[in-house]
């Protein structure tokens, strides 16, 4: 069990640098999803489930469920389902993007996937806390 947890934590570390491409370079991204992005998506889904349970217990209404579905579908589940399609489309249009912005730095897709997964979890937690503070039913147990 301890070895499995250590292996999972090691797989959360991205393999690429945040800005691996030079300006004006047209990178071709591999269509296979990196292991670190997949594991961060699993972590983000677990965090969202935990936020859903706590938010539902505090607010006692359907709003955390609606927020959970919206943020989890757009973030980690969307990344898991549509990674290949997104990378394929990026590879098709990256040649055009090179001519449009020759000075722009391109963040690696691995770091973009991690940012999307964790960013949606952070926004979900923020909105549930805001809902819990402003809800009239929040303090009545």
Write the layout of secondary structure elements.
Layout: H1 2-10, H2 35-59, H3 63-74, H4 76-100, H5 109-134
Helix pairs in contact: 2-3, 2-4, 2-5, 3-4, 3-5
Summary, kept brief:
With 141 residues, the protein is mainly alpha-helical.
Overview of the molecule:
- By secondary structure, the chain is mainly alpha-helical.
- Helices cover 69% and strands 0% of the residues.
- It has helices at residues 2-10, 35-59, 63-74, 76-100, 109-134.
- It is globular and about 55 Å long.
- The chain starts with a helix and ends in a 7-residue tail after the last helix.
- It contains five helices and no strands.
- Helix 2 crosses helix 4 and helix 2 packs parallel to helix 5 (109-134).
Features:
globular; 69% helix; mainly alpha; 141 residues
Percent strand? under 5%
- Rounded to an integer in angstroms, the radius of gyration calculated over CA atoms is 19 Å
- Following the backbone from N to C, one meets helices and strands in this order, namely HHHHH
Helix/strand/pairing category:
mainly alpha
Can you summarize the main beta sheet?
Answer: none
Structural shape: globular
Low-confidence stretches: none
Mean pLDDT: 83
Distance between the termini: 38 Å
Helix content: 55-70%
Number of strands: 0
Number of helices: 5
């Amino acid at each position: 069990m301890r070895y499995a947890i250590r292996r999972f934590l090691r797989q959360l570390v991205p393999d690429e640098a945040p800005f691996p491409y030079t300006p004006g370079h047209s990178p071709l991204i591999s269509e296979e999803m990196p292991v670190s992005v997949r594991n961060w998506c699993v972590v983000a889904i677990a965090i969202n489930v935990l936020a859903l349970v706590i938010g539902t217990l505090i607010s006692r209404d359907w709003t955390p469920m609606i927020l959970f579905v919206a943020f989890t579908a757009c973030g980690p589940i969307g990344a898991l389902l549509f990674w290949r399609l997104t990378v394929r489309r990026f590879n098709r249009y990256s040649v055009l993007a090179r001519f449009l912005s020759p000075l722009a730095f391109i963040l690696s897709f691995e770091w973009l996937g991690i940012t999307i997964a964790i960013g949606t979890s952070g926004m979900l937690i923020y909105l549930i806390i805001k809902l819990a503070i402003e809800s009239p039913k929040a303090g009545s147990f």
